[in-house]
Specification:
Layout: H1 2-16, H2 18-21, E1 24-32, E2 35-36, E3 42-46, E4 53-58, E5 64-69, E6 73-81, E7 84-92, E8 97-98, E9 101-106, E10 109-114
Parallel strand pairs: 1-8, 1-9
Antiparallel strand pairs: 1-2, 1-5, 3-4, 3-6, 6-7, 9-10
Length: 115
């Protein structure tokens, strides 16, 4: 009887964490002028064509970020720096994917690109 309860509990816990087990992580560093962005810059990921935010975070003191995306496929990563929204298409997998990014000025405008 006790072993049946343990099996039911284990199955319940596995089902509860099954969404995060299939989720992928998008992570990396963001630099501007060869230096990391300051701590607290907003970073978020959304599905294309929607405003639904899959995950959001802020950069740490090293300009690093980590996002968890439950769905596999195309997404849009947005960095909000000095009141400017800079977007970059990204692809989430079941495995962690590194996106090291660079903010640079082109024709007087900030752009976001992959390193």
């Amino acid at each position: 009887m006790r072993s049946i309860k343990l099996v039911i509990l284990a199955v319940g816990v596995a089902a509860m964490f099954s969404d995060t087990a299939s989720a992928g992580k998008i992570f990396g560093d963001i630099k501007l002028g060869g230096k990391p962005l300051p701590e607290g810059v907003k970073v978020r990921v959304t599905r294309p064509g929607t405003s639904a935010v899959a995950d959001s975070t802020t950069t740490d003191k090293f300009g690093s970020y980590k996002l968890l995306v439950k769905d596999v496929g195309k997404s849009v990563l947005t960095v909000v720096y000095e009141k400017q929204r800079l977007e970059l298409p990204v692809f989430s997998n079941k495995e962690a994917t590194r996106y090291d990014l660079i903010l640079e000025t082109s024709d007087g405008k900030l752009i976001l690109r992959r390193k």
